Amino acid sequence: MITSYNKAVENIRTQLYNYLNNSKLNSLVVGVSGGIDSALTVVLAKPVCDKLNIPLIGRSITIVTNKPDEISRARNIGTNFCSDFKEIDLSENFNIVAKTAIEDFDNENKNSFDYKIRLGNIKARLRMMYLYDLAGKNKGMVLSTDNYTELLLGFWTLHGDVGDYGMIQNIWKTEVYEMSEYLASKMKNNDMANALLDCVSAVATDGLGITNSDLDQIGASSYKEVDQILIKLLDSEKELGEYKNHKVVLRKINSEFKRNNPYNIPRKLITGESL
């Protein structure tokens, strides 16, 4: 686990600065959801964009199921940290896309969990279409907002959540919370600090209307428990014990295909050539 958040934050910002400086990109684009991951991403990116004098473009993109508290937190993060922030409602667009993209739409069981997951995937992909077009328009790139815990759980949408550059992709969810609290403690502006702390204390949701919280879907009582199980799972020398058949373990195993996407058959297996 991270032992110095001061050093970790410095390293993340240095890496982003060097990447942007070398790539000659003119902007950064991020979807601001009102959750802690996108909030931390924006807070980490702001001073880098300021130093390079490029816009940090944030968009709160609501689609049907976003709750007022999520929208409010997103607005506070966007207005306090982004140089270009807008709220976009794609609900009407989503309703049209869903009816045309879902085969046999009228005969679907609208209350089934699987159907809600599929709708959530369409929402995530629609948002990403918007963000990537915005990045193309402004000659920039889209920032990923997923963390390491979500990556291992497959708790993200293929072609809907993965951006071009991840600052927190290899940070555990518990570290996301702790890094956010550290950054808030260093802020002299109370409005900025409170905007970030509101995201820290909020119930984590994917904003897709599938369940009341992310932990409901994951099947755990806390992210501390989730991270502890995943750390044990990654350490092949440790016994999982009571967690052997835990939902967290099964999610990690069953979502392996997402982390190997796209999978391409190795050339040697096609040609029959030896190593």
Helix content: 55-70%
What oligomeric assembly is this protein in?
single chain
Shape: globular
The overall pLDDT, averaged over residues, is 93
Quickly give the structural class: alpha/beta
Task: Sketch the topology as an H/E string, one letter per element.
Answer: HEHEHEHHEHEHHHHHHH
Strand content: 5-15%
CATH superfamily: HUPs
How many strand segments?
A: 5
Which second-level CATH architecture applies? 3-Layer(aba) Sandwich
- CATH fold description: Rossmann fold
Q: Regarding CATH, which class?
A: Alpha Beta
Gap from first CA to last CA: 38 Å
Uncertain runs? none
Q: What's the tally of helices? A: 13
Number of domains: 1
Rounded radius of gyration (Å): 20 Å
Give the biggest beta sheet. 5 strands, parallel
Task: Give the strand order, joined by hyphens, for the main sheet.
Answer: 3-2-1-4-5
Can you walk through the features of this model?
This protein has a single domain (5-209), classed as Rossmann fold. It is globular. It starts with a helix and ends with a helix. It has helices at 5-23, 36-52, 68-81, 91-101, 113-137, 148-153, 173-186, 190-201, 214-218, 223-234, 247-254, 256-259, 267-271, and strands at residues 28-31, 56-62, 84-89, 141-144, 165-166. Helix 2 packs parallel to helix 3 (68-81). It is built from 13 helices and five strands. It is of the alpha/beta class. Strand 1 (28-31), helix 2 and strand 2 form a beta-alpha-beta unit. It is 55% helix and 8% strand. It has a five-stranded parallel sheet.
